[in-house]
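Before relying on records like the one below, remember that each one covers exactly one chain. Contacts with other chains, cofactors or solvent are not represented anywhere in the record.
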Amino acid sequence: MLILGINSWDRDMPKELLIKFALKFAEDVKAQEIAELQDFWLAHDRKLLWCSWQTEDLKALEAAFAKMNEQSGLKSELMPFEKVPLK
């Protein structure tokens, strides 16, 4: 299933550090065979990062995000979504 993650943060975080952190998290989640990052989009000035994941284990992905949020101070919301083809 496809999962959309919406991430936000309150404190200032350098863009390069945030990207590095996000990619490391994606590598770790993939290595644990929980999910695979499909894409991500960043609006650094608005303190928002969206990511899409492919997983068959939403509970494990939610647990990984909860642990990451506890360590990083990020806030995340995960939800299933459906990709709609453009005409």
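The CA atoms of residues 23 and 37 lie 9 Å apart.
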